[in-house]
Amino acid sequence: MAEVRCVLQQCDAALLDPASDQWDCEAGRMLLQLTDNRRIQKVLMRQLFVLDAIVSLLEGLQSARQLMTLPCPPDPEGGARHRWKALKMESLSGGEETEALLQRLQEKIQQIHTKRHTLTQLIAQLHSKKQQCEQLLESLQKAQNALQICDHQLMSLEAESAAALCQLTDWQRIRDELQAVVSSAQDVMQINLLSITQSELRVELRPRPSSPLSSNELDPLQLSITWSHDDRFTLQGGEGLLDSVSGRRSELGAALLEILRNYMEQFLLLAEIQELRSSFAIDWFPAERRLVFLKSALLVCELLVEEGYPEGGGQPAGGAQGRTPCGPDTIEASL
Length: 335
Known about the structure:
The protein is α+β, with helices and mostly antiparallel strands. Among the domains are: 1-54; 186-267, no CATH class; 280-335, no CATH class. 58% of the residues lie in helices and 17% in strands. Strand 3 and strand 4 form a beta hairpin. The longest helix has 106 residues, at 80-185. The chain starts with a helix and ends with a helix. Keywords: Coiled coil. Residues 312-335 are annotated as: Disordered. Residues 95-160 form a coiled coil.
């Protein structure tokens, strides 16, 4: 019975309900009933065999005396008992064969479940491998996109590098031109290089005037030269003594020489302005040739310097702003 339940459990679990106690009780009562019926049938079969033998014996007798004189006949060969025993042996053999078949069937079912479990695991691994493959393909696509971006950036950097190299070549040419200008000006000037960068050059000029005035009486002229990416430059003089000049790079040499020439021409004027700055608050505007200084808290004076002063002997014109008017004589007396 247990083997039958095991086979049914392996085939279809719905056929058995392990939680049902009523079915188990009914099955037990049915088993007892079948066992009793089988025992009763065996007894009845034996009695039937005896009755059949008696009837056969009586049919062969002719009189009652013959029944008393005849010996007991032997058991006939191939009688019902022998047939019953043969059927019993056949039933036992069939039961054993059935049990063997059930055992093999159970083993095959177990193998099927094992293979099913293995197949489920393989399917899960296949799905996992498929997801990994999709992730790898996505990563590969991202890497290819990043590689393309890197190629574009590399091409852009190569173009920028070429442009920077050309710009560096231009800067080197500008440096060579500036060095040539500085070399050409060394006959009349003392030049000190203060600093140099990729976009700015700062130099200090100390003139050698032809007049008896010593060059140590005037502070050196500091020039700052800057250039931009659009091939233009800006030239500025230190302390506001000279106006800034800008233009194209090809005009840098001429502008530098012009500033040097103007500076040499205004050497005495600049020396005088420098001397006055030690005593007064003075602002000098070279483009307007205008000198502005604070005479007192209420008076601001302006001087317009004529061309050629002081070498040409020109006289500056004066004006004042404040509460008390003043003229050139007042300004000269103050100075």
